[in-house]
Write a structure and sequence with these properties.
This protein is α/β, with parallel strands linked by helices and 209 residues long. Helix content is 29%, strand content 35%.
């Protein structure tokens, strides 16, 4: 008997809740709630806000005879200010790297300074006109390098091979290319005589390779 009464109470409560949820008053309330939330969201996007974004840096144009001896930053931290709608465009997954071209900056000094003005000029092409830069970290970039010597060295190919039945070598073994230009510190290059390859294993040869 008690079980039946409990079931009736549950059924009555469920019916009341269902009637309330599908009533006209609830529909109007939800409509106004969604409308108010939309107005609040639009108003929030129209206000100026601050945000920190992290932009990847890409260094290009480094010649073969140049070795970078320090570790330049790979990320630029940028604190910016703009309207919320504009800030949405700086979503992290959409941030393409800023390219820093170093092809014309290597002289005899062994050190390159990318000044705040140079960084700002790159950022102006990257950001929207309405975006204000509040802080840049780092505000300058130092790149240390050394010029490398070069040498043309013969390639010494290490080969282990076997021939198929009724086959023989009829000419001298040679490789192409047989020389290579290498770059490195002068002292190190002076001790190099050849460039040795990894061992190449060629079993059961029956044709030219």
């Amino acid at each position: 008997m008690a079980d039946n009464s409990f079931k009736q109470i549950l059924k009555y409560s469920f019916t009341k809740i269902k009637t309330f949820l599908f009533s006209k008053d609830v529909f109007i309330f939800l409509l106004f709630f969604i409308f108010s939330a939309g107005l609040w969201f639009v108003n929030a996007l129209g206000k100026e806000r601050e945000r920190t974004i992290y932009i990847p840096l890409l260094y290009t144009g480094v010649p073969q005879n140049i070795a970078i001896t320090n570790q330049p930053p790979k990320i630029l931290s940028l604190k910016i200010k703009d309207e919320g709608m504009n800030l949405l465009q700086y979503r992290q997954k959409n941030l393409t790297p800023i390219t820093i071209n170093l092809s014309r900056t290597f002289y005899e000094k062994g050190r390159i300074m990318i000044t705040p003005d140079q960084i700002s000029s790159n950022l102006l092409r990257y950001l929207q006109p309405t975006t204000l830069i509040l802080e840049t970290k780092p505000d300058s970039i130092v790149i240390e390098y050394e010029k490398l010597s070069s040498a043309v060295l013969p390639i010494e190919c290490k080969i282990k091979y076997s021939l198929a039945q009724q086959h023989m070598i009829v000419d001298e073994i040679y490789i192409q290319p047989n020389k290579m230009t290498v770059f490195g510190p002068k002292l190190l290059l002076s001790n190099l005589k050849t460039i040795k390859t990894e061992t190449l294993v060629l079993p059961n040869l029956n044709d030219t390779v």
